[in-house]
């Protein structure tokens, strides 16, 4: 005869079963509370969680086995994918938003580099790019700074085109980078020393930490600055200087594809400590000075613009015309010349400084160019047209001009000047830093089966405050911190910390060549991204960006992870799941057979 619940407790029968039942209820409540917390994280901010077990391999599941031999996890979407190899013109180095030849052909003008800007196709890439013939595992850092496999980036045009300037030399199976450049007659090391000698206030790696190199060539300037604790965002367009940015990324040097054309660069206001241009072929005086206004927008108050070009040191009519235009525009912008010099090879240099006070703006006659009005206070430059006005100097919540960050490396862990002044923001920032420091040291380093010695180029797809990048600072890696356009804007804070990053919409393709990153990281991105675009399209873009043997690390809800596991397995990736919230995928060399 069944025992009624009330009699069960009155008579106190089966004490062992009663204890076990209460324990199960408690465990169920705890798990429900934990899952509810982690699944409602703010888009860019991972909820601070309990530390994972120090031996997480015991709590991981491997989904690399043959599907016939292993049952899929519960609720996994068991969808079959019929992957095909891309055909021409989607070749091995195809970049969807920069190689949209149909859109480029339809442009009414190319006068302002419109053909080098983003023109994303209406439909996403639905095929997989082939590997270059003879592709090899990249040369490891730091050797890669000086040489890379030719077969990985099989382009020799720059070897011939710039042979007298020693940009790159072909040597057997390698492409070798001697550290030369158009303005680096005595080598890039000498040139970097010449810059600091011309203006000692630069103090590489202490006062100047975050640099933008415009028209960077093969990025040797940024590559050699790494030795001085300077992180440089090197950029150039995809133009006749064949594969220059691809060379840079294959070398393990931070770089991206971009152009100063009709749209703003995808960086925040007041972000860079120093901007550099060595014969970068930008017409700074074009359109009444709009390209210079854009530099003014992204340069930190008190920051420097170092310009090394023929108008600085040649007297012919053309160069003097450009120089006179620069004098007029920089004066109207309240920039002042703080140093000018010429090195032993005859190369000239001028260094401007952006003002640290608004008083000069107020004293100008005619208020031309005017100060921009940013009524909503937003700081996004995504698909925004170049301004014909000057961005006002940044102020804090009390109306005071923001200060220069602390010297490196203190700025990495101190309160960023652009962080909101309320106490909640400060607590959130330091809590985020603590969370990532503990998670990376206790779990990511030893618990995810990642061979960190093979990792150099890292991208955080949803960087937040760059806590993940900060936690990796002692490793020989660099991190591209991406702030998605539909989450709170933290990019100014990231750059205040002495790190680099950019804005992006992950429903579109990223401005980089295929096979350029060793590790992509995402924390609670896909859950929000799925509301706007197809997660399969995002996975195809990740497959395009990631190098063979590279890693994808995703922290998200189990619903999202299950979907990703299904997609990645169809791509023949190895996939492991940890703690029911961390997915680690590793890309292989598999490509579908061509038609």
TrEMBL record:
Classify the main location: membrane
The question of whether Transmembrane helix is a record keyword is answered with yes
GO CC annotations?
A: endosome; membrane; trans-Golgi network
> What biological-process GO terms show up in the record?
methylation
Could you tell me which PANTHER family the record lists for this protein?
METHYLTRANSFERASE, SAM-DEPENDENT METHYLTRANSFERASE
Q: Which Pfam families match?
A: Methyltransf_29
- Highest taxon above the source species: Eukaryota
In its UniProt entry, the species of origin is given as Glycine soja (Wild soybean)
What top-level class of enzyme does the UniProt entry assign?
Answer: transferase
Give me the ranges of the annotated region Disordered.
404-423
Q: What Enzyme Commission number(s) appear in the record?
A: 2.1.1.-
UniProt entry tagged with the keyword Protein transport: no
Keywords tagged on the record: Glycoprotein, Membrane, Methyltransferase, Signal-anchor, Transferase, Transmembrane, Transmembrane helix
The record's annotation in SUPFAM superfamilies points to: S-adenosyl-L-methionine-dependent methyltransferases (SSF53335)
Q: How does it sit in the membrane?
A: Single-pass type II membrane protein
Name this polypeptide is given: Methyltransferase
Q: Which GO terms describe its molecular function?
A: methyltransferase activity
